[in-house]
Amino acid sequence: MRVDGLPDVPVSHATLDCDGRLIAADPALMALNDQAGGALGDRLAVPQLATVARLASRLGILVSRSVRVADQDADLDLWVRVQPEGQGVRMAVSGWREVRPQPLAARSTIVLDDEDMGWETDAGLRLTFVSIDAARRFGVDALSMLGQPVTALFTLDAAGDGALPILEAVARRKPMREQRARLRHGDVRMVLTADVKQDAAGEFAGLTGAARAAEAEAEPVAAAPAVSASFTQGLDKALRSPLAKIIAHADTIHAEAEGPVQRDYVDYASDIANAGRHLLGLVDDLVDLQAVERSDFTLQTEPIDLADVARRASGLLSVRAGNAGVAIARPLPDLRVPAAGDFGRALQIMVNLIGNAVRYSPEGGVVSVTVTRTGSMAEAVVADQGKGIAPQDQERIFEKFERVDPSEVGGNGLGLYIARRLARAMGGDLTVESTPGDGARFTLTLPA
Predict the structure, then answer these.
(1) By CB neighbour count within 10 A (0-12 exposed, 13-18 middle, 19+ buried), where does 34 fall?
(2) Higher-confidence residue: 411 or 225?
(3) How far is CA 405 from CA 274, 354, 382, in A?
(4) CB–CB of 1/36 below 8 Å?
(5) Following CA atoms 55, 57, 58, 61 in sequence, which dihedral angle do they give, to the nearest 10 degrees?
(6) For residue 208, what are the β-bridge partners?
(7) pTM here?
(8) The pLDDT value given to residue 225
(9) What is the pLDDT of residues 296-315, one digit of tens each?
(10) Domain spanning 6-99: which CATH class is it, in words?
């Protein structure tokens, strides 16, 4: 995929429609697309560029990141900037630097455990990759981090001598084995490790790293729960990593990230990914079930902003809601409602409530998320416009393995049971008010 005259092409532009078809392009981009088997009027044929274009179109925001396009003789390092414009997107591609592929031995040796969050940067320490599923567990929208400096994701802590290991790794071109940090979203303490990436000329090209929680939770089981710890731990280890890989590969096929795929296979891949997420969610729920049913289960509370938690949960579900034709009315950006709770668990509850509301809302409906303070309690209310819940079912749905309508697709009857146990462990509660045919209002209360 050689493009002649690279030094004369500082920036090349292209325009794509809403379906990713190439409408217009400068000569360099046109040549790159032609040599990849594409044509004007067809979908962009360079997979790496097409992926960035789809991301910007889906999110409706500017997306910029570095990509490497493979060639038989040399790779092309490009900086891609895609801006939604009208019914399509406008792409600007700069860089156009030819590099020889790194030999396999020079590539990253970082190995991710199941709970680790993978991340990568370019030479300017701007994030080019963040593990989507791992980031979601910490309440972080991975896609919004792309193109941001690494400090937008982590607050870096200096070592005892005042030095920052990440800067020493960059300066010395040596692996970073321990950079203490705090996740900027939720203030979770993390330990970062990373390998240095170098280009063919030996120049610094970025970092490939992993982030893991600084302290693993390992509490003894005081009493035999309904689901044994050995069972859930074995299930977690046996299924989480394979399911995550299945989902990742299926998503790649569904997004046609590596080139066009026959439509039937795209649909199959979507079904596989959704089934994998359902099973992964069941694994998560069983692990949580084992935890909340321990007689000694407690949560450490700290000051949190319940309005911020609600906004983050709404953001995490915005794509799902959009696909379902449902709008989420979230709290205003400047609203602050202090509360005492565990940030991660409060976020988990709100994601469950808003996700349920989106699932049961009709197309064109609105899920309203409001947060207020009432007396000594902070309250978050999630209201939908669904079919509602009969009075005799309003307590039953909080019981284990119970659902309003077992015949409906989705859910396993554990979400609300776990959510209420978590709310009460933080000194609050989870309740519902509903009239059949008039939607439902779920209220999370936490001490203010």
Answers:
(1) middle
(2) 411
(3) 21, 18, 20
(4) yes
(5) 80
(6) 120, 195
(7) 0.45
(8) 46
(9) 778 888 999 999 999 999 99
(10) alpha beta
